[in-house]
Amino acid sequence: MKDHNPQTTTRKKGEERPLSGRRILITRAWGQVEEFSRILERYGAQVIAFPTIEIVPPEDFQPLDKAIEVIHSYDWVIFTSVNGVRFFTQRLQKKGIALTARTSQKICAIGPRTKRELEKRGLKVHFCPAEYRAEAVAEGLRTLGIEGKKILLARAQEARKVLPEALKEAGALVDEVEVYRTVKPEHGEASLQTILKRGIDVVVFTSSSTVRNFMELLPDKAALNGIKVAIIGPVTGATARDHGLEPAIMPAEYTIPGLVQAIVTHFLPQPRP
């Protein structure tokens, strides 16, 4: 898949931006809102941030610390998100253990952002799937030959079991370790209702957790009538449908730039037949 990069898009002076007048509600965590908002605003959107998840450390660091102590015994370490990289490497530093590009472990990253985050820390990524989802990781690693290999999967507490199960079916020895949790921040149901009553064109979900927490704050789905639902990928889309929401916008590439491009494309004037 090719990278979409809306930030590099140019427009002629005086040309109306494609999202001018559109109000877009983002449900990502606070630390992840800024860049997403900035890209959308360059297209003319008015962004309303209403985080429905908060990224926090594990309640118990003991399992993570045990894995870190034997990190060099693993053949592969898999990171599924930027958050996973940040929390994992912070804990490595705290324990005084270093991973470098020269270490024997091979590293797998899901998605270009996760890959860049690892490379920024001087780590070499040996595999990044073309499709940024768990199933593609399992299939790609299976092709590389992971039978009998020891794999450390560093990810969120509530992550799906698809990946570890697929890796085990391929003959790998898999240890899962929680490096962070997503929790629901304190929000009032009334504040969300107020935002929606003021008018929203699109509500954006970038994970299943954002969908679930959003819907817990919105018992009346009728409040979303006429509002387009944008989702980052099929897993989030499935969760949205489970909660009675039908996604109208989904990118071909499951990244934030791809999602922005899909939103822009959705609102572009359609050519006449």
Question: What would you note in describing this structure?
Answer:
With 273 residues, the chain is an alpha/beta fold. The protein is globular, with a radius of gyration of 20 Å. Strand 8 (202-205), helix 8 and strand 9 form a beta-alpha-beta unit. The protein contains 10 helices and 9 strands. The longest helix has 14 residues, at 82-95. A 5-stranded mixed β-sheet has the order 3-7-6-4-5. Strands 2-1-8-9 form a 4-stranded parallel β-sheet. The chain folds into 2 domains: 6-53 and 185-267, 3-Layer(aba) Sandwich (Rossmann fold); 58-180, Rossmann fold (3-Layer(aba) Sandwich), CATH 3.40.50.10090.
Keywords:
Rossmann fold; 2 domains; five-stranded mixed beta sheet; globular; 10 helices; four-stranded parallel beta sheet; alpha/beta; 273 residues
Provide a compact summary of the structure.
The chain is of the alpha/beta class. The protein has 2 domains: 6-53 and 185-267, Rossmann fold (3-Layer(aba) Sandwich); 58-180, Rossmann fold, CATH 3.40.50.10090. The chain has helices at residues 33-42, 62-69, 82-95, 112-120, 134-144, 162-169, 189-197, 208-216, 234-242, 256-267, and strands at residues 23-26, 46-49, 54-56, 76-79, 106-109, 150-156, 173-183, 202-205, 228-231.
CATH topology value of the largest domain = Rossmann fold
Report the radius of gyration as a whole number of Å.
20 Å
Roughly how much helix do the residues carry, as a percent range? 25-40%
Measure the end-to-end span.
29 Å
| Strand proportion | 15-25%
Shape: globular
How many distinct folded domains? 2
Main sheet properties: 5 strands, mixed
Please write the string of helix (H) and strand (E) elements.
Answer: EHEEHEHEHHEHEHEHEHH
